[in-house]
## 1
Amino acid sequence: MKTVFMGTPDFAAVILQGLIDNGHEVVLCVTQPDKQKGRGKQVQFSPVKELALKHGIPVLQPVRVRGDEEFLDTLRKADADISVVAAYGQILPVEVLEAPKYGSVNVHASLLPMLRGASPIQHAILNGYLETGVTIMQMGPGLDTGDMISKVTVEIGDMNFEQLHDKLAEAGSKLLIETLKDIEVGKAEFVKQDDNISTYAPMISKQDGHLNFRMSPEQLVNRIRAFDPWPGAYAVFNDKGESMKFWKAEALDKATDKGDEGKIIDLDDSSFTVGCGGKALRVTEIQVPGKRRMSVADYFRGNTLTKGQIFR
């Protein structure tokens, strides 16, 4: 199909690659404006822009789609069969969604109507779900409220965000190709979402990574997995106010006192155990400022923690 693609991060780039590999004519890519990163303020292209340029696909980067008549005119002149949207990063007005022949479809990383919003992958892990998935939906004016066309389920297991993200991107890419075939030949079925059972996954901030040791160890493990690699699950560990990131940990069914929340209650050569939510969290991989991720065993070769020390 003659396709306009709208997306920005790595998840979207996987979807775009799938369209290219399966012979869809991507006539235009729309992505967020370039960013400046680092001390030298180097310009950083989005993963979608990098991929589009590699394949000679024209790229548009409107600062704000809504109200941009020049952008809308270019979109209409592209005369596309369909727009495919994946993690683009802006709310799209109806006139943009309806410009192509078959309208616009969205590749959303959850089993809608659960986890509408900006961070469905992180929240599937945070909420302790056993499974999540990808939904292809027809886009409308609401936030992830359009009619569902197809779904695929993915088991979460003990995956962290990065691992689950990659698995969902691949699953979504395959599902999209199948769904576009059904749309083109008129076989696609459109199912309305039940708003009564919908949930919302708000945007993640850096502050969300700050660990609250009043939570259960299971909840803390979920946060560590959900925020790997960004923003990282962390707690302040010394008088300088420096943060230690927790990268690997396990929940222990070990009763602790109420006053033990955030306190190191046990140590061995390869781990330390912190009281939390009436039980305990055993930590085996960490990161401190200016250092790489490392095992607790490696950290203990040149550093110490003490029993009774408090994380906050």
## 2
Amino acid sequence: MKKKAFIFITISLLGLIACKKENKTENNMDKETLVKIETSAGNIKVKLYNETPKHRDNFIKLAKEGHYEGTLFHRVIKDFMIQAGDPESKNAPKGKMLGAGDVGYTIPAEFVYPKYFHKKGALSAARQGDNVNPKKESSGCQFYIVTGKVYNDSTLLNMERHINDSRVESIFNGLAQKHMKEIYKMRKANDENGLYELQEKLIAQAQEEAAKLPEFRFTPEQVKAYTTVGGTPHLDNEYTVFGEVVEGLDVVDKIQQVKTDRSDRPEEDVKIIKVEVE
């Protein structure tokens, strides 16, 4: 009897220990890192998402190293976004073109879509274009905060139609890229019939592949955000969203209102004084 009781108590204690350990893990996952960006225009506080760990950890690393201190919001476009993080922007003379600076590495894309999207206040990673960056890898240091604009329901519906219609074209271009040697060869030989037959074949293949994809629709959360606070929906699933503003959205608005030059650089510098992990 005593032996059975001992076994029962031991099993119960093990169960309690396991539960406590699991709860501790869940709490760590639930806790999101807060970062305060102190700027010459005021303070902006952002939270970093745990679901984008590579971007989160990199941003924390650079903040602790003081990378962002003295950098500028070098690209500001009203009703679109404010961008910063270029190391070459430190003490940059007026009129200097900025935006090409980096830290010598990129970060693999971490799309958590449609959960995280480009609503107003979204913290996202800048990157080079698809032509040189087909994997959509992020800049190792440059980021932007979305300001965007408010859309109505009909505009969002038109965007959905455009996205669905453009899928065939996108798939076709991808297929054509795989046949470029064949295409160049037929062009060189002036084989118009061969080119036409290949084109029709690839169009049919693209249509078939597109038909297998689920129809694109904005989620209710996206529709609500884009028709109330606003954002930049055309950037969704193209750039990694790794956090969002939780305090200081008025400062973001203040920055997007500044006067800029032809290169979208503010005429009066808007500087990051310090980035502090809380």
## 3
Amino acid sequence: MRQIWITRTGPPETLELREAPDPTPGPGEVRIRSKACGINFADIMARIGLYPDAPKLPAVVGYEVAGPVDAVGPGVTAVKIGDEVLALTRFGGYSDTVVVSEDQAYAIPAGFTCSQAVALPVNYVTAYQMIFVMGAVKPGDKVLVHSAGGGVGFAAIDLCAIAGAEIIGTASAAKHGMLQTRGVKHCIDYRTQDFEAEVMRITNGKGVDIILDSVGGKSWAKGLRCLRPTGRLVVFGFSNVATGKKLNPISALRGMLAVPWFKVNPMWLMDNNKGVLGVNVGHLWEEREMVAGWMRQILTWCEEGKIHPTVDSEFSFGDAARAHHHIQDRKNVGKVVLVP
């Protein structure tokens, strides 16, 4: 099989394509010949050296794949050879051949390509947890979605529409047209506009009910001020510490110092009737039944035509470094996919 390895911390050029023996599925496992592998910002943070959950380098990262099953282990009953499936992986997803437990594989929705399917596991499960499980979004809520033009951003837009919420999205101006066609009512150009001032203007000074924020640092401090009473700030990343394509300790420290530590405490939150919630799907690996329930609901909505994964671009395994550059240069509108 072919795999993309992070050989050491550094810029995208540290990614290296290597050959390895094909894995063999054991009891209760299936083997997938990947046609598409998802890229997530956690992979980029691991490459830079800022992702504490990443395996020790050199390593193969990646959380999701999609493709046909070509072998099954003893005891497998729900999946058969030839089935096209998508799957969550605990790293190792940057591979053209992956072995997973039978319960981690789900049938690809009718009419979906493998690239569209691979946009579902991490992005939509993360958005589902934020919007329905922890954020408790209800009809009429105003939701501020940061990085609305990315993979999780588009997933959140789809799910907010299902919930009946009004969406405010931050993104560069070039992405606003696409976001508006997908249902974002108000677009804010984070490069030229102060999102805090714009949110308060849009809401006539009331603030929003929910904020989905993967930026961190000053963005969290401003977000807390943008929340109306009973509002919730849901944090699911810290891209603000990854300002370059390799580790910059000074920049990372500045990002950490910008966190509003004095406000993220029970007394302040109680006095202000606000909440801060944290989401990390990678830490729910032992909660398979819970995540499986979310995934089944997402797939049901796919079959009902309520979910429309947005694939920005596909890169070959040999162009993995260029794919990482593409994301870090903020050029993507939607999911970026590796195609073996």
